[in-house]
Amino acid sequence: MASIQVIGDKCIGCKKCVKVCPFGAIEMQGKLAVIDLSKCTLCGACVEPCPVEAIVLDRGDRPAGAADDSRGVWVFAEQRGGEIQSVVFELLGAGRRLAAARGCELAAVLIGSGVEERAGLLFRRGADKVYLADHPGLRDYRDEPYARLLTRMIREYKPEIVLTGATSIGRSLVPRAAVQVPTGLTADCTGLEIDPSSGLLLQTRPAFGGNIMATIKCEHHRPQMATVRHKVMEEAPEDPNRPAGELVRVSVTEADLASRTNVLETVKEIEETVNIVEADVIVAGGRGLKGPEHFAMLGELAKALGGAVGASRAAVDAGWVPYSHQVGQTGKTVKPKIYFACGISGAIQHLVGMSSSDIIVAVNKNPDAPIFNVATYGLVGDLFEIVPELTRRFKETLRR
Amino acid sequence: MNLIVCVKQVPDTTDVKIDPATNTLVRQGVAAVLNPFDAYAVEEAVRIKEKHGGKVTALTMGPPQAVQVLRDAIAVGADEGILLSDRAFAGADTLATSNTLAQAIRKIGAFDLILCGKQAVDGDTAQVGPGIAALLDIPQIIFVRAIRELSADKIIAERMTEDGFDVVESTLPCLISVVKGINEPRLPSLRGVMTSKKAVIPTWTVQETGADPERIGLKGSPTYVHKIFTPPARTGGRKFEGETAQVVEAFVKAAAEDKLFAP
Ligand SMILES: Cc1cc2nc3c(=O)[nH]c(=O)nc-3n(C[C@H](O)[C@H](O)[C@H](O)COP(=O)(O)OP(=O)(O)OC[C@H]3O[C@@H](n4cnc5c(N)ncnc54)[C@H](O)[C@@H]3O)c2cc1C
Ligand SMILES: Cc1cc2nc3c(=O)[nH]c(=O)nc-3n(C[C@H](O)[C@H](O)[C@H](O)COP(=O)(O)OP(=O)(O)OC[C@H]3O[C@@H](n4cnc5c(N)ncnc54)[C@H](O)[C@@H]3O)c2cc1C
């Protein structure tokens, strides 16, 4: 059985392990680190930081390298209504980098109905190969047929790495497919690198509501699978002159299409037509807005800047804006170019949802509000005066 | 209707403190609580039971003290709890966690609906729900914000998407994961608390669960944490104070200089 221990003779009492333990399971007893096994989850986060290799995690005898002949980087080309989603171009950007490091080809997996002509776009964005499953029965995203087909392609063609967008579809599809393969899956990655010495994929992701970053490895199973957060990776540019690569048609039988779920209807709800996850500019409001009627004022500023409206949980819980606008730990994670936080104090649960925005502008009347600790620009004052004034000024300068 | 709710004990993230000297998280002494998303799953299960009759079984995998989240579930209306606890379960990634929970569910036997939270706020992967569904070979509806209809053999639910929701129909048995906002979890009644304190909760080890030792814990986990670090802290930039006109002027000027809105 797997086990962990601290070698007393080696431990120098430096406390590095205490700091990295996400579960608070390590305590110093005098100069010795002691692991509380009732709290330890054997996650292994403390092993590498120990400068003297005093922590030994015995993983038990693990299965030896399965499918070593696996090769190639794959990207799941998510489409909705036949449109390739922009996250796919980001995956192709990241995938190209990884494929170069591994000296292998980059392929895209396209599943849908009447989507064959979309393969051209994937080639122009850098795919060397496109695996295509095209059938009228695949028009709507449904977990079972999609997961079944993806699983079968993976088993048959044995890629080394498979990337999928961490979208609502991606996060439903790949956890199901990965288990069927079976292999490991890293969630919601924000960093992907190839380890030069081992050739393994180093998958970095936020956990604990963004409070910590973890780098995950999948050593003995193939493919190494990851969902990747939208708006983090650099898009692969479109090259109109790039020649089409190889199109591999995957046959689809009636049995492949069997599904116990059906999509009855698709409803769009975001009012401003701009989805906050996609928006380059977000103007968000919190309890400082004082009532639902004042969100229109934020909408004006958002409109002037071509952005969308976001909200803190306090504003959502008060019923001023629908939940689909909530940013934060229990809402959406966003990474716009510019994030305006108006009348938002900057609680940690809000910050984890927006602190990787390129630029943060805070408007708050309390000069000590924690939001100012993360703001690129802090505007101290009454938002009811500042926001309309900003709208007026930007309307002038940007002429929208 | 037989309902199974998967609940996880997590560190209370509202308690998170940053050590100003080292800029790292202080996790010691942080209380352990029921994963907030799982509270919605429990509430939804109890509401279904109240409407359609049946039984709610809460299931958790964790260390012995994780029994508390089962008591929390019983206090608000779950009928029974099962604790999966064994050192051999530790170190599980989402594949091994799904394997353990799926095996326990097979052992429990008949069920119509399995409810999970959207994600656990520590591991944050949202992978365990779909994993269990795949292993039990049942359909799934992930990120459910409302159940529209439920009958003996069918469920119709609203599944959240980036810009709204899909209305999805599924046969039963089925697994759903629920998001915040699906309901307002009730507070436990005094009687509920008394019942939960007295409840006898069985602990299943690897043997009782009947899990394959190769597919659980660290051994059954393809992924592992190689390294953990705190994200580089963001620091504050420029702050503008004074009269509104001055503040706005200073910001608009800075925005132009820094080319904030350059196309
Ligand atoms: C498990 C859990 C999950 C959570 N998830 C989320 C989440 O996803 N998203 C989220 O946002 N929160 C979340 N929270 C809640 C979070 O802890 C805070 O309570 C919340 O973010 C506060 O919202 P707020 O900043 O709008 O309100 P407040 O903290 O009340 O701040 C209001 C701010 O407005 C300012 N203000 C008031 N009037 C004016 C004015 N006229 N002009 C300018 N400024 C003014 C005040 O100075 C103050 O700073 C979560 C909490 C928990 C426990
Ligand atoms: C920093 C860090 C990063 C990690 N990253 C990954 C990763 O990328 N990939 C990976 O495979 N593993 C990862 N793990 C391991 C993972 O956290 C564990 O496998 C954990 O047991 C389940 O994952 P989760 O917490 O993300 O749960 P989620 O999948 O987010 O949980 C969803 C729902 O499943 C149910 N559920 C989850 N766990 C339990 C349980 N123990 N008992 C009962 N119900 C439960 C609950 O209803 C919960 O709401 C990571 C662990 C750490 C510490």
What can be said about this structure in brief?
The complex is a heterodimer of chains A (400) and B (263). Chain A has three domains: 3-58, Alpha-Beta Plaits (2-Layer Sandwich), CATH 3.30.70; 73-257, Rossmann fold (3-Layer(aba) Sandwich), CATH 3.40.50; 281-399, Rossmann fold (3-Layer(aba) Sandwich), CATH 3.40.50.
> What is the CATH topology classification name of the largest domain in chain A?
Rossmann fold
CATH architecture of the largest domain in chain A: 3-Layer(aba) Sandwich
H-E string of chain B? EEEEEHEHEHEHEEEEHEHEEH
What name does CATH use for the topology of chain B?
Rossmann fold
Q: Roughly what fraction of the amino acids of chain A lie in strands? A: 25-35%
Strand order in the sheet with the most strands of chain B:
11-10-9-12-8-1-6-7-13
Helix content of chain A: 10-25%
- Show unreliable segments of chain B: none
Structural category of chain A: alpha/beta
Strand content of chain B: 25-35%
Strand order within the widest sheet of chain A?
11-15-10-5-8-9-16
Description:
The complex is a heterodimer of chains A (400) and B (263). With 400 residues, chain A is of the alpha/beta class. Chain A has three domains: 3-58, Alpha-Beta Plaits; 73-257, HUPs (Rossmann fold, 3-Layer(aba) Sandwich), CATH 3.40.50; 281-399, TPP-binding domain (Rossmann fold), CATH 3.40.50.1220. Chain A has ten helices and 22 strands. In chain A, the strands form six sheets. Chain A has a seven-stranded parallel sheet, with helices on both faces. In chain A, strand 2 and strand 3 form a beta hairpin. In chain A, helix 4 (143-157) crosses helix 5 (170-180) and helix 7 (295-304) packs parallel to helix 10 (383-398). The longest helix of chain A has 17 residues, at 86-102. The termini of chain A are far apart. The model of chain A has no long low-confidence stretch (mean pLDDT 92). Chain B is of the alpha/beta class and 263 residues long. Chain B has a single domain (2-215), classed as Rossmann fold (3-Layer(aba) Sandwich). Chain B has seven helices and 15 strands. Chain B has helices at residues 36-52, 67-75, 94-108, 128-136, 190-198, 206-209, 244-257; strands at 2-6, 9-11, 17-19, 24-26, 32-34, 55-61, 80-84, 113-117, 140-151, 154-161, 164-171, 174-178, 203-204, 223-229, 238-240. In chain B, the strands form three sheets. Chain B has a nine-stranded mixed sheet with strand order 11-10-9-12-8-1-6-7-13, with helices on both faces. A two-stranded antiparallel sheet of chain B has the order 2-5. A two-stranded antiparallel sheet of chain B has the order 3-4. In chain B, helix 2 links the parallel strand 6 and strand 7. In chain B, helix 2 (67-75) runs antiparallel to helix 5 and helix 3 crosses helix 4 (128-136). The longest helix of chain B is centred in the first third of the chain and has 17 residues, at 36-52. The mean pLDDT of chain B is 92. The chains are: A alpha/beta (400), B alpha/beta (263). At the A-B interface, helix 1, helix 4, helix 5, strand 11 and strand 13 of A face helix 3, helix 4, strand 9, strand 10 and strand 11 of B. Strand 17 (261-268) of chain A pairs antiparallel with strand 11 (164-171) of chain B, so a sheet runs across the interface. The complex binds flavin-adenine dinucleotide (2 copies). One flavin-adenine dinucleotide sits between chains B (6-8, 35, 37-38, 41, 59-62, 92-94, 97, 101, 116-117, 119-120, 122-129, 223, 225, 228) and A (22, 43, 184-187, 205, 207, 214, 216).
